[in-house]
Amino acid sequence: QVQPKESGGGLVQAGGSLMLSCAASGRTTIVYAMAWFRRAPGKEREFVGGMRSGGSTYYADSVKGRFTISRDNAKNTVYLQMNSLKPEDTAVYYCAAGLYGLGYSTTVYDYWGQGTQVTVST
User: Are 3 and 111 in contact (CB under 8 A)?
Assistant: First the structure.
C-alpha cells in the first residue's frame, strides 16, 4: 500500500505561482512513477504531468513550460511548481502513484490522494 497526500492548494491570482506537494507514505520503494492529475468543474480528470523513478518527467501540452515536477527522495515527496497560472488551471489537483507505468490514463495508477483545490482568479 502507498498513501499519497497532497497539500499546498489555495487561491491565487492569474499570472501567479503556487507549489503543490505530494507526500507519499507506505511502501514507497515499489512506486514506479508519480503523477499529477486535475479535474476542473464539469470535466474529466486529466493528466498534468508525471515523473518516473529514474527522474524523467512528462507534461501535458497545456502546462508545458509553466509547470515543473520535482522531488525530494529523502522526504518521499513530489512537488508540482505551477507558474503563470491561468483561470483555466482552476481544478482539484490529485497526486497518483503508479506501480508499473506512467501514462495519461487514470487507469495506469494504483493509488490516489484526496486532492487539493487550486483556484485561479482573474
Answer: yes
